[in-house]
Amino acid sequence: MGNSTALGPLHDVALPGGRIRYHDLGSGEPVVFVHGLLVNADLWRGVAPAVAAAGHRCLVPDWPLGSHSVPVPDADLSPTGVADLIADFLSALDLRDVTLVANDTGGAITQILLTRDRSRIARVVLTDCDAYDKFFPQPFTGLPRLAAVPGALRIMVESMRFRPAQRLPIAFGLVSKRPVPPEVADSYLLPSRRSAAIRADLRRFLRGVHNRYTLAAAEHFAELDLPVLLAWAREDKVFRPAFAQRLAADLPRAELRWIDDSYTFIAEDRPELLAELILEFTRQHAAP
Questions:
Q1: DSSP letters along 139-173, please?
Q2: Are 132 and 218 in contact (CB under 8 A)?
Q3: pLDDT in tens, 32-56
Q4: Distance from CA of residue 81 to its chain's centroid?
């Protein structure tokens, strides 16, 4: 469960697919955060408070991607289903002129969402994330097959109980340049270890992942007429700089900004800089 005190109190909203828990801090134009696989709202603990302090309402949900605390057994957890869940969240809270900030798997889901319902979205920040044929990228491409093997997912999440294992490439070693603090790693990894229902949600999502979804979304990039900031880690070992440059070329109103001294999880490695870039981008593209 996202539990960082920096993110403020937790709220719940009932959506057609299930209940989503989220933090809501600040006031002003809304900024909604979309994390990726096996992390939760705590990913943004160093980013959202700074964005809120500068005059935004920051909504930071725990999406049902394996580190959530409220099971959603009836939700459609296919990539399109999760994209629609985000659209339902924006609608349920009547959020308009939204800035979406996404990372990793959440960036792929956001791209899918933009091709389905972008009526409430005014601008998008994509940090290092899946796209095109990389959904998932190496070395994570085997996760959907692993999820189909009975018992394998439980063995995988149990292996992450050991701190050294958390720094392996298949865990956080490739995506976070610095070790994730132990209490945050627990927030990310304990839900799927402790709850069979959360593992069942995770399994359903993993089994649905396929790059046909991101490739189909990319076919519509030329139609996306909203501003996109690509805030990308120059040292990323999973989504390399050429990948960001391809996105920048294909998205009509994209701006690419490089971030040094970080891997995929910029919100873990360089939260202050990411918050600055988000604020600069929202000021530059403020609603008239």
A1: TSTTHHHHHTSTTHHHHHHHHTTSHHHHTSIIIII
A2: yes
A3: 999 999 999 999 999 999 999 999 9
A4: 15
Identify the residue whose tokens are 């990319």. Answer: 218
Q: What is the pLDDT of residues 168-189, one digit of tens each?
A: 777 788 999 999 999 999 999 9
Angstrom distances, CA of residue 56 to CA of 48, 59, 69, 140: 9, 10, 26, 35
Helix (H, G, I), strand (E, B) or coil at 180: coil
Candidates 98, 7, 109; CA nearest to 52 is 7
Q: Residues 6 or more apart from 46 whose CB is under 8 A from it?
A: 6, 267, 268, 271, 272, 275
DSSP annotation string for 185-247: HHHHHHHHHH-HHHHHHHHHHHHH--HHHHHHHHTTGGG--S-EEEEEETT-SSS-HHHHHHH
